[in-house]
User: Fold this.
Amino acid sequence: MTDSQEPAIEEIKEKMKTVKHKILVLSGKGGVGKSTFSAHLAHGLAEDENTQIALLDIDICGPSIPKIMGLEGEQVHQSGSGWSPVYVEDNLGVMSVGFLLSSPDDAVIWRGPKKNGMIKQFLRDVDWGEVDYLIVDTPPGTSDEHLSVVQYLATARIDGAVLITTPQEVSLQDVRKEINFCRKVKLPIIGVVENMSGFICPKCKKESQIFPPTTGGAELMCQDLEVPLLGRVPLDPLIGKNCDKGQSFFTDAPDSPATLAYRSIIQRIQEFCDLRQSKEENLINS
Amino acid sequence: MEAAAGVWGWGWRPQAASVGPRTCLRARFSQEALDLGPLNLTLRGGSGRGGFSASCLEPLTCIFQGPVSNGAACWRQGPGNLAGIRHIILVLSGKGGVGKSTISTELALALRHAGKKVGILDVDLCGPSIPRMFGAQGKAVHQCDRGWAPVFLDREQSISLMSVGFLLEKPDEAVVWRGPKKNALIKQFVSDVAWGELDYLVVDTPPGTSDEHMAAIEALRAYQPLGALVVTTPQAVSVGDVRRELTFCRKTGLR
Assistant:
């Protein structure tokens, strides 16, 4: 469907004018920590009270964001200016299909076209307001949801995608496909994050590889495919615990190696977005 | 048969060394709007193995194009390719990364160890893990007179596999398809793969409750699947998605 046939694309472009930076969090593989990363990226960026952060969960079948952000049971309200996101903090708003279900056990058994319709509504009808960063958490794979979000945001300019993987080859082989997908749809790649990369025992401090990088891990893959490796986040049982409780891991374990890794990755993502913005401004001014 | 681009068909039975059906098929299919990315299916002929005889001797490259409606005139079911299967088990989970493919693999190996003949059907089209789990990357799907021959791991044919991973020319190629195209391939996996006589068919699925799951269940319903094995990890984030999967099972009548 071309732009002229899809009026929603223009409407979304208008709506996205108040959103400065848009970041997609992708992975070909499931269960590598996309939602966990998206949530903590949002928490990390929102620590600066002067920035307005929006977190959009387009995983229609398995919406994890409400649980991870501690917003289970919340509902979406509608106003004259559109759907209101659910706010965790004053400067952190969240939207997910999870808020639209009448019961948390309700299964969303939708085929592609209906999922696309929902994503269109999320992008067009949610009143995000002035936002510095919109983070979009995606389901695993390279299918309807991914095609739709890229298509609908095509004219609104996505800053880039962050790809999450674990060190095993079973994960990397799916992430390579995702990198190819990004290149096919001309989506800039901010970089790759290697999650669950090593486990440090809290008692003896010895490091073990729970998911051994038998084929060189994300580092070798990034070298081969010429994409930046943003960082490695070690496995910390407190992360999973905090996700289940719906709290920010940073508050519970500020000195964990995982927190430090996250902060460094978040900083690199901010630098990427700022650099992109200044390049664009130079282009406009020249 | 010369190597040429064509449309890989639903219900098309190739005849030995003839170009006729392929060209005929192109006329029967209407070319609809492209999804992103063509799928190159390379089917290589080979000598017959254990009851199968190959009918193509030349590499045939077919390009998958366009979504096909389920009611396409040229679609017809294969000759009961699942009739020889005693039990069908689906391995599901709402959540990704909990170990569905791992469990499917271990289940198949355990059943084989118990002397059963097992097939694994991998309907995860975007992230097919089954070929790697069995060390069968790079194997190709052969064609026989009864349809597509699954990939066998050993001479006894005690484990047979089918996955989109075997149909990709390059392992890093992304299958970027929308729902209707995925549905069509899954239906083809169910009806056109000549599984033969099996004690168990294990169906490995992607995470979620969407097109692949609905297509697999619709296609398998006539063969009365035994039921579903739902996989989870202990965390609440996982269990939440799995509760939804259990609702899905109830709604679709899967035990």
Observations:
- Chain A has a mean pLDDT of 90.
- The first strand of chain A starts at residue 19 and ends at 26.
- Residues 152 and 231 of chain A are 29 Å apart (CA to CA).
